[in-house]
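Hey,

Quick one before I head out. I ran the complex with NAP overnight. Inputs first:
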Amino acid sequence: MAAKIISGTEVAKQIRAELKDEVSELKEKHDVVPGLVTILVGENPASISYVTGKQKTSKELGFHSIQDNQPDDISEEKLLGLIDQYNKDPKIHGILVQLPLPKGINETKVLYAIDPAKDVDGFHPVNLGKLMIGEADYLPCTPAGIQQLLMRSGTDTNGAEVVVVGRSNIVGKPVANMLLQKQEGANATVTVCHTRTKDMAAHTKRADILIVAAGKPKAITADMVKDGAVVIDVGVNRIGKTASGKAKLCGDVDFDAVKEKAAAITPVPGGVGPMTITMLMMNTVKSAKVHAGLI
Ligand code: NAP
């Protein structure tokens, strides 16, 4: 039987509607408007498109939103000064620096300069450390989106065998850590695979929940998936162009074959992707509430 499709587009829509109501209430009852700044350095087309999407969504939700475009020859010192300015700005609750940054700018130094209390991307080591001990304030957006997809699709993670393919700092490691926590939406038994894993299929075939973030088209084929598994495909790979000239996207999972075996699966596009921006919005609303002393 073909798998149920877990639509990130639908779940994201639902969460954004909830957030919109929350933003209206914050404005009416507490005179608080969540503020988000997205800093874009240079003119990388993919980065422009990501930042535009974030700005559009934040405006739709009623945020105070600023898109700060800087030239690609901005000095590291000036960029750090700009972050310091936003760290001190009471109208700004979330600061996002779009990566990658041009050569010559130390990304780590820039990300570490963001006040952890305004790090709505959840990449600051303070926030990643809190995540590891189960006390996260701001979860990294893509892993948080994956967890929401599991919870809102009624997938029980308690005691489930979760296999994560990929160990990056932005997806694999944090999502593995999150699902390991002694918390609702977690409590799983987690295995993490990577390029040095011996016999990866032996692991993936055990998975009740398989999360794939490898960045390789068809890294997961049907013979690597257990009957009835829930498959979350994080990968976004550009493979040629559609008839209209747009980039054609695919995930890391052989979707057509795996959907015949899995119980549920996320599509690409329309799966994890829409959740990432939504979680950024959720973190910004949370930060606004924290800064206003409401939570
Ligand atoms: P990354 O930093 O390149 O990490 C990829 C990870 O996958 C690495 O740990 C690598 O292992 C592992 N890997 C690669 N090929 C593998 C294979 N054949 N077998 C087993 N492990 C393999 O990538 P990332 O930033 O985590 O992103 C992963 C994918 O998710 C990309 O396609 C990216 O575009 C997508 N993504 C999507 C969203 C979204 O919002 N939808 C957000 C973030 C990322 P090693 O560590 O051994 O090299």
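The radius of gyration is 19 Å.

Talk tomorrow,
K.
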